[in-house]
Amino acid sequence: MKITRIEINKFGPLRFKEALKPGLFNLFWGSNEAGKTLTIEAILSSLPFNFKGDRTSWDRLYNFRVNSNIDVVLEIEDEGKIYSLRSGTKLESPLTRSEMFRLYFILNSELPYELEEKKNEVFQKAMDRLSSTYVNEISAVLKSLLEVNNLTPNLDFRDTEAAGKLKSRLDSAEIFLNRISDLLKRIEEENLNEIEYEIALKKRMLGEIAETESKVKQLRKAQIYYKSTDLLDRYENQNARLQSLKIYTDESLFNLQKRYEELQRTEEELESLKERELKPLEEKIKELDKQLSEALKIKNEKQRIELTEKVLIDKIIKYKDGLPKYEFNLKLRKKMNILSILFGVLFVTSIAVPILTKIPLLFILPVLLFVLTFYSVMRYSMALSEIRDFLSNQKELFDRARSLGLKAAHLEDIENELQNLKNEVEKKEKAFERLQGEKSSMETLKTSLIDKIKILEQKKVELTTLIDSEIEKLRVKDLKDLEERVKQRRNVEEDLRSIISELKGLWGHEIQYEDDTDLIIKIGRELVKIRPDEVESRDSESSTTTGVDLNELDERKKRLQEEIDLLSGKIEDIKREFILLENEYINITREPFSIETISDLLEAKSKVEDWKDELLKTRELVMYLIKLIDEEYKDMKSRFTDLFTNLSDTSWIFSEITGKKYNRILFDQEKNVLKVEDNQGNVLDIESLSGGALDQLFFSIRLGLGRKMLGNRTGFFVFDDPFIKSDGSRLHREIDLLMKVAEEGWQILFFTCKDEVKEYLFEHYKDKVNFIDLEKIAIIS
Fold it and tell me: Would the pTM count as exceeding 0.90?
């Protein structure tokens, strides 16, 4: 039996780049991070075996694998046939799943495959069915079952005090049941059950009355309790609110309202002064300023007129003085113009006379005419110049007059118009002086108003400051907020008075108090005295308890009790019999139970019958279990004996691994224990071996028993760093032994990351090792 193919397409995060075809000795090299542990788990999860006693069917296993994160192909060849989960063919195994794993999967003892097992249990569990442990455990279980149930190996009661008591209780149970049957027959014959029924009915009615009475009292107490609790809670809350609202008094509200009213009057007065008096006054002053600016222009105009008038007077005087001369010059200009032309013509003519006459003396005539012509021209020019000066003066005079706005064309009219203009300017000047006086009086009034406004504004600031101070002191936003707080305070005080009134109605007749505070304190003390069970049914009020009269209930209770006492006297002897049977019941069942009625009697009979039946059934079950355990014990003891009768092969393996330090492994059939013999001939208990020696013994047993259990067939071993406790020389011997096992036909899958193992195998068995580098072939995603 060998693994011929390992193909891991998906096993969680692990997959192989290619399928593996293992040889006899296969070294899987790599750490856990490289996929070592995942590869081993993939092999374990995909073994195509029908294990002995395995309840997992192929269909369930197939469906699980299809719908899980597993895609692993593991093919095993046995006697020429290939087995694989993928093909649906599985190999029948003579071993259980546990035996298979413990024999052929030798894992690191610090990392057992079955994770629920603890480290210190690994060796014990592995030796489970392969050592004396299981046989001894079965024997111990069998012994315990017999002792607990007071049985002998022949399944009879043991001759002990406990067994005698149990047998006595069974006999008493039989007598007890017979007595109850006789008593029930008598009750039926004497018709006592009807009396019992009537008594039970009246007792039930009595109980209902008592329950109703209790509910009424409890409900009323609960109502008072919860009502008082709610009122006290409200009182505490409202009192706390009152303390927080204490500063918001009517007086503080009245004072702040007065401040606000005074501030409002001041603001209204300010508004009136500013809008109704100051503003119109300022507008009038502004209008006067505008008029005065116009009057100032008239004053300037007056100065200009006076200056122009002075110039005009000079011009007028000059004009009047130059007018005669102007008129003379007009005439002279005309004359000189004619004479200059005449003298000129004569001058030109006179020049030709001396020339023509050739009389030199006649040249005096042209000279004289020239002088006369020159004089005439000069006089003409002078007259023309003076005329121009006069006209220029005249033009300037009229231009000045036009600049003053005088439109007259004659000098006399200009003088009249100028006088009129002067009179008008004087009127405007008088009006200007009147406006100035009016403005002065208005500015005086304005100053007075501004002073009043300043006083009012100062008063406003002071009032605002006082109001802000009060608001800050009272911790409110404004007057409206204070009004709301005062209203809240009044409501709280009213609510407190209402609460005190209600509490007085509830407790006034029960508690003596001095004042309201004393009442609250004493009610709180009374509520503490009330038990929780007295008020637990706060919401239990119903129509059945509403308006019930407690006095009437009490009368009904008395009547019913008298009727019950009368009927009970008729069955007094039956009651005495009930007491005797009650004691017998307790002795039999060891449980307390009260028998007061026929119904209780029937229930006691049923319980004793159940106890008897359960005891007998338990004994039958124990007998069945003991029989099964005994058969298992005999079977396992026989199998264990067969496995460990001849341990020569196992002893040789153990001796080889330990370097001949131990010679043999011995099996004590009488005590069902394993022992070892060292090379000195000393026989030692396996518990005295070191941890490393125990591991090697365990390994040797698994090798030996594995070979023995498969008979002539060879199988495979999967190792995961199995020799972690071995030193160098011992490790080499163990590897040499594995190589010998492989040479015999056993397949070895050796997983390791220890350099020492790899180096030793490559140095001594390079050609015999199939080296698989997990870091190259395995992919972890």
Answer: no
